[in-house]
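User: Hi! Is it possible to get a structure for several chains at once, not just one? Here's what I have:
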Amino acid sequence: MTDPSPCADRPEKRYWLDEPRHVDKIFYGLVGVCVLLLLSDLAYRKHATFGFESWFGFFAWYGFICCVALVLLAKQMRKLVKRDEDYYGD
Amino acid sequence: MIDGLNPALILVCGSLLALLAPQGRSRNLFMLALPVLGALQLWSLPYGEHARVEAFGLTLTTLRLDGLSFAFALVFHIAALLAVIYAWGLRDPVQQVAGLLYPGAAVGAVLAGDLVTLFLCWELAAVSSVFLIWARRTRRAYRAGLRYLLAQVASGLLLLAGVIIRFRATGSIAFGGLGLDSPGGGLIFVAFGIKAAFPLLHNWLQDAYPEATVTGAVVLSAFTTKMAVYALARGFAGTESLVAIGTLMAMFPIFYAVIENDLRRVLAYSMNNQLGFMVVGVGIGTPLALDGAVAHAFADILFKALLFMSMGAVLLRAGTVNGSELGGLYKSMPLTAGLCMVGAASISAFPLFSAFATKSLILEAAAREGHWIPFLFLLFASAGVFHHAGIKIPYFAFFAHDSGIRCEEAPRHMLVAMGLAAALCVGIGVFPGALYAILPYPVAFDPYTATHVITQLQLLAWSALAFALLVRTGVYPPELRSVNLDFDWFYRKPLLAAAAGAWGAALRAWEGFNRLLEGSVERLIAALALHHGQRGIMAATWPTTRMVLWAVLLLGACLIFYYL
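Assistant: Yes, the chains can be modeled jointly so their relative placement is included. Here is the combined structure:
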């Protein structure tokens, strides 16, 4: 391919993941898996201890919302706690 | 094996004897034999109290084996064994000795039947483990090691104070259920809490572990905190406040883990998060919950060692574990990447991996006891741990954008150690019954029900989807070279400044006192000099002629007086 390896004169091996459309494939694969898992709630009888566990797709959307909230909150936290790498000077 | 011999002694004495073996293969083989022999000895001992020693006018029970101590002692031996294999290429006697002495102390602590033996092992573990940080031999590591040692020794002192109060009030040093309300119970609880990295007492962990050596971090990750979980399970099972403490522990570190750049520090935060689950289990205190805490500690030691080993290999080969500088390493280190992902899947509790079979015991116990708020938070923490340890660690180290770093694959001995750890992680996930069989209480729980598998997969897949969406839309915060303020800020900045100020004031006071003293001494010297100095009247040398004159005058005077 185009970018030569720094240490060899033959071109560096191009990996499957180097191709953006392959990364897209993984992403859409994940979306497909998520949809299937969500729909699988219709296909079996859930054993739930708490009422909210039996809501449709509870674990799916709870996980999704938690992770988005986690990242957005952590991003805001950075404004408060981020300092230079040598802040402590050691 | 030898009747009544404490397995801890095999590790402790052996670690020192290892120095006699010549460096290289023979020392390595000797060190490899120690955890194997220790584990065989442990396996051969029947449950019960074995060794009694008279010391300090007390009867110490140095070896007590039951379901609780057995599981911990066994996994400690496995972790020590993995570390020896991982460090096969290491030629540093400091790390070699500390790498077995410290596990030996931890084994001693979980086998201790009384609080004095526990205290002695507690301190030995503290002192021996700091060398795994100092062995990095940088100023930064030295200072981090000192802060670490201060926290550990503080924990030891609190434990000692608690034990003394307890002994004076009850006359007993037995290490069984203690309870917060018992004499000295509060102090002992805080002592355990420091080592278990309770919120606000946690920062020694994130501060010190990432500064340890490549091998050091692997060894450190296994013992101190799990020893504390054991101690809590033994002394404070069913203490209600532990549920809240554990929930908090599981929650807040995940936010730090998301924005932390040093990937070994991310792992340190995720340790805190996993310890939170165990502490909740101890707090609930039912047999199922305690089994869950023990099983999860067992699994955690293995997958956390695996993750620390993979990041250690990256540090060794690429020279850094900063997410901002890594990426694309799967091209150079495909095996390490794969093994790291096994560890990531295990900590994330994917079906067929270890935490799926162990963490679920704790969540099930929380549900059965009706703790719905902790349950929801622990579910949040489960999604969070997948996010930061399950995805972030492998993603930023081995994938993400290609950093251009091209290095060698990890050395073969490291791959063997990681492979063994990975096999155990998968083994526990696939055959949970084998682990359940050695837990303190009989387990009547099947993790592989349709509900559990599907709901867990839903949680994980949708968490992964959130990560992927946030990265693709550019919302995900980039890895930045930075340090994030945590509770250690209080003692590394204002408290340090206050201490420096107090020290400065003390120095100034001392100088003033000295000046005052010097002034008066100078005045004294001046006065002495006036009378006794070179020109002082009292110090002048008298010529003999003058003496003779005076003698003559005196005699003359006597003569005159007699004559009169």
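Residues 47-82 of chain A form one domain. Residues 1-8 of chain A have pLDDT under 50 and may be disordered.

User: Great, thank you!
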